[in-house]
Specification:
The chain is mainly beta and about 80 residues long. The chain is about 0% helix and about 50% strand. It has no helices and seven strands. The protein has strands at about 1-5, 5-10, 20-25, 30-35, 50-55, 60-70, 70-80. Strands 4-3-6-7 form a four-stranded antiparallel sheet, with no helix packed on it. The chain is globular, with a radius of gyration of 13 Å. The chain starts with a strand and ends with a strand.
Length: about 80
Amino acid sequence: LPLGDGLFRASSVRRGVILSIYDLNGHLITSMFVDLVDPNDDIHDPHHAGGTEFYLPKTNQCYIYTFWYNKTRIHSGKLIR
């Protein structure tokens, strides 16, 4: 969830989810555990509590993000920053 000025929030209702961010060459930029949120919360609301915040500097590049759970990819997509 983009929060503005390069700040993003990742949330999960599962314990033990890992977020990995890669450049387009497949190099790992960062990896972190994602904090749990209440499953009744609207995680698309930027004012919800919980989740893990991270920062990506503006580089005019595309990044690939992947959520992992038990070594299985559960979601992935692109970020342009």
